[in-house]
Amino acid sequence: MPQENLKITVEQTNTAFQCASDDSILRGALRNSVSMPYECNSGGCGSCKFELVEGEVEELWPDAPGLSRRDLRKGKKLACQCIPKTDCIIKAQINAEIVPNVPKRISVTYKGKIQLTNDMAEFRFQADQPAKFLAGQFAMFTLPNIKGDRAYSMSNIANEAGYWQFIIKKMPDGKATHYLFNELQAGDELFIDTPFGNAYLREDNDRDIVLIAGGSGLSPVVSIARSITMNDVFAGRKVYLFYGGRGPQDICTPQLTEELNPLNIELVCYDAVSDEKLAKADNWNGPCCFIHELVEKKLGKTMPDYEYYFCGPPPMTEAVQRLVMIDYQVPFEQVHFDRFF
Ligand SMILES: Cc1cc2nc3c(=O)[nH]c(=O)nc-3n(C[C@H](O)[C@H](O)[C@H](O)COP(=O)(O)OP(=O)(O)OC[C@H]3O[C@@H](n4cnc5c(N)ncnc54)[C@H](O)[C@@H]3O)c2cc1C
Ligand code: FES
Fold first, then answer.
1. For the chain, which domains are there?
2. Nearest ligand, CA of residue 218?
3. Which ligand is nearest the CA of 313, by number?
4. Of 141, 176, 278, 327, which is least packed with CB atoms within 10 Å of its CB?
5. CA angle, 259 then 265 then 269, to 5°
6. HSE on the CB side for 45, CA within 13 Å?
7. Model confidence over 142-162: pLDDT tens digits?
8. CB 247 within 8 A of CB 278
9. Residue 325 and residue 332 in contact, taking contact as beta carbons nearer than 8 Å
10. Best residue among 41, 196, 198 to mutate for probing ligand 2, ranked by most atoms within 8 Å of CB
């Protein structure tokens, strides 16, 4: 069916925008600089819930975990998983914030990957236009014969030459990561839709910075570290980088931070592994604990003084969130995170 532009009106606000009939309502909103709340863009978090008042939509993933049974009973839907079929009237929250970078779909050519650990690699792509994004943001990948786009966070920084890099972890039985690690060939073309995400590096304060990553959460955190070391705004800051893996073989931060060029920042890196058996088997003599425990041990009472960026699987990000926001009462504005659903 030919693509057409449909009108989405947000009830009880002065907001209306055009959304293509093959675009999700969330992406349509963001492309028009309408700041609809969202986090994962992948159906997992539920932040983009809305009510359909009038019109028809197609739900791309009706069982998406972002909707609870209660939400389903109340007829709620996810803006990141709904494509309009007609003009629609919806009930949704619209934020006053500005959309930092309007996302668009671009073609990229795969150039190759650098293996970082047994199951993690940095993938490199090239586009024929400048790579515009903020450190910490992510792209949605459309992959052949895979239902639903996947989110991957950039690990490099914005550049005029059109380079895009992503640190990706291969998941056991994962469909997209199987394709990326085993089938994608140098020279292949893919479509990515980007940039998305609100856990980007802020320049509006002079606090020292704490970066925390678990597993594949390393990608945006490395992008933020790379961006900090290239930007004079951050001169003189202290930056902590905490990385947690299961076993010693997951630790690749020394390799990644070695190439950083810390102009005049003080970069302190701490790694921890959580699996005692793996730690013993590989003679690990560093900390063996969850990464949020190491953060508390190292920063203690000074915790409220920092700006925080953290990413990784939901159990890790939720533990860090509890530590930072509940136990140490760090103000909401100082905390930026992405859960990798
Ligand atoms: C904001 C964000 C940033 C991320 N950044 C990174 C990163 O930098 N590096 C990295 O390695 N991983 C990242 N991830 C995780 C990544 O998006 C994938 O979830 C992961 O690679 C597993 O994908 P898979 O297809 O291999 O696994 P599978 O188990 O096959 O798929 C799991 C994921 O696919 C999605 N999914 C499943 N079924 C459907 C469906 N029917 N329709 C739509 N979606 C569906 C869900 O998001 C689910 O979590 C990020 C996730 C998010 C939300
Ligand atoms: S943004 Fe739609 S479910 Fe997370």
1. 5-91 (3.10.20.30), 104-196 (2.40.30.10), 209-339 (3.40.50.80)
2. 1
3. 1
4. 327
5. 60
6. 22
7. 999 999 999 999 999 999 999
8. yes
9. yes
10. 41
